[in-house]
Design brief:
This protein is of the alpha/beta class and 335 residues long. The protein has nine helices and 18 strands. Helix 4 crosses helix 5 and helix 4 packs across helix 8.
């Protein structure tokens, strides 16, 4: 395969600054790495947190993007899992040490030395990227690259959050009905659960979108649902939603905070937590999460709803995400 020496990329030079278009050398895969020709890359809220400086330890300059869907364009020494031309996905978790206490007990998502795509490793806002073969996934058939891209983080974190909600979550509330929510809501509905969607006050367009995907109720995040919830997942990075979700859950309910960053959680009376309610967070993902999610979405017939932008429109896509003007998921396409 003919690989150009130079590639296009959108670079983050410093937090709080717009991304800068650049023409830079195409990376070469090292031992155990694959070179990926990026066909599409999802635009995730975590990208906003990195770009805005809310996640404070990025590699700089940095190529954002960790929802990468593409094809294998080159192989480093020792690569055995993929061949040239394979459809491949690259997620947020890019490398773990395999040695720390978390890795040894099966919690690689909490690895003390983990590296993350689009944060401490260059990501997919570019024509090509390199990735460790061990942390990549084969993309399921039936999805084009733009549809597959959001599965690599919005889907994965949504799925991990969904599992953390527990097996008794027959009535499931979802606060913040964006990329992750619209994927996992389809899984929940297919599995026979009732989904209650909470949006920004007055966002009737997104509420209607949730109802079209099978939610039994959709309303403002300031409202109580018509029935107490068994569990709630909070995807919006708004700490004030934690006591709101507790207030909406029944005894024994679980509130899962599904984001990597959230504003401060305000104080709340103990009675909202009493009766064995639980608050928990979700961090990163494991490779097992990825394998399970991709199998589940294919089986459930999940169809990500995407708004496509050209690579050069990355700043526009980020700004529209910041303003809540994306229905479903935003995706950069390279062609």
């Amino acid at each position: 395969m003919n690989i150009r020496k130079l590639m296009r990329a959108m670079m983050l030079e410093a937090p709080g600054q717009p991304l800068t278009p650049a023409c830079i050398p195409t990376p070469r895969p090292g031992p155990g790495q694959v070179l990926v020709r990026v066909h599409a890359c999802g635009v995730c809220r975590t990208d906003l947190h990195v770009a805005d400086g809310e996640l404070t330890r990025p590699k700089l300059p940095l190529i954002l993007g960790h929802e990468i869907a593409g094809t294998v364009a080159g192989l480093g020494d020792g690569v055995t899992q993929f061949q040239i031309g394979d459809r491949i996905g690259v997620p947020w978790l890019g490398w773990t040490c395999g040695e720390c206490r978390f890795c040894r007990r099966g919690q690689e998502n909490l690895c003390e030395r983990a590296l993350f795509t689009g944060y401490t490793l260059d990501g997919g806002y570019a024509d090509h990227t390199v990735a460790d073969q061990r942390y990549c996934f084969r993309l399921p058939d039936g999805y084009d690259f733009a549809e597959a891209a959001p599965l690599l983080c919005a889907g994965l974190i949504g799925y991990r959050s969904y599992r953390m909600a527990g097996p008794n979550a027959q009535r499931l509330g979802i606060y913040g009905f964006g990329a992750a929510a619209h994927i996992i809501a389809q899984v929940a509905v297919q599995q026979g659960r009732q989904v209650y969607a909470f949006t920004r006050p007055g966002d009737t367009e997104t509420q209607a979108f949730a109802l079209r995907l099978g939610a039994v109720w959709a309303g403002d995040s300031t409202a109580l649902p018509p029935e107490p919830l068994d569990a709630a997942i909070i995807f919006a990075p708004v700490g004030a939603l934690v006591p709101a979700a507790l207030r909406a859950t029944a005894a024994g309910g679980v509130v899962v905070c599904g984001g990597i960053h959230m504003s401060d959680i305000p104080g709340f009376p103990y009675h909202l937590l009493w009766e064995e309610r639980v608050i928990r967070s979700v961090a990163n993902l494991t490779r097992q999460d990825g394998e399970e999610l991709l199998a589940v979405t294919a089986q459930a017939g999940v169809r990500p709803s995407v708004q496509r932008f050209r690579l050069e429109q990355a700043n526009e896509a980020l700004e529209r995400l910041r303003r809540g003007q994306i229905t479903g998921a935003a995706v950069l396409t390279m062609e």
